[in-house]
What we know:
Blueprint: H1 2-42, H2 46-152, H3 154-253
Helix pairs in contact: 1-2, 2-3
Amino acid sequence: MSKATEQNDKLKRAIIISAVLHVILFAALIWSSFDENIEASAGGGGGSSIDAVMVDSGAVVEQYKRMQSQESSAKRSDEQRKMKEQQAAEELREKQAAEQERLKQLEKERLAAQEQKKQAEEAAKQAELKQKQAEEAAAKAAADAKAKAEADAKAAEEAAKKAAADAKKKAEAEAAKAAVEAQKKAEAAAAALKKKAEAAEAAAAEARKKAATEAAEKAKAEAEKKAAAEKAAADKKAAEKAAAEKAAADKKAA
């Protein structure tokens, strides 16, 4: 933004300087015409003086035309620069939109993996609840069997105890198996999520590195361009000064 303001200020200064020089040139033309009329009315050796004034007027007009051409060239260069800056800004916006879409997709995948982990944890809780219910049922069955065995006979009591022990063992085995499977699923989901996060971080780091490199290259190119422009302006100013001094010397000699 500051660079664009600086360029606009330079253009405004160039226009103001050009306008002032135009006024000076018109004043010089009017003054030359005035000198020509005075010398013509004086007579005598006025012929040579009039010729000298006419030569100077032609040089002034030529300088005026050259300045107009340079001003038009400067305007065209500024318009081309603005078009290039607009194009670069549009390309940057497109790259940023693509990067945002990619990050959005990564976030979507992360949320999906998180949901899968949540479901796995819920399944583990359900398995634990079933295990607890099975244990409670087994304990109740054992108590009932014990009461019945005590009431009926020792053999029935032994049979009931055996059935209760078998049921409890089976329930514990099923619950343990379900818990192991749920744990495996949760660990797999967590590993996948970690891998995706690491890939996203690596991609983001690469994008930041690339953007920094491009910005440095662009800044270097702009600095070189600015230095060349300043050198050209200095050369131009020196040439104009030399031309003005030569014209003044020629006029004085005449």
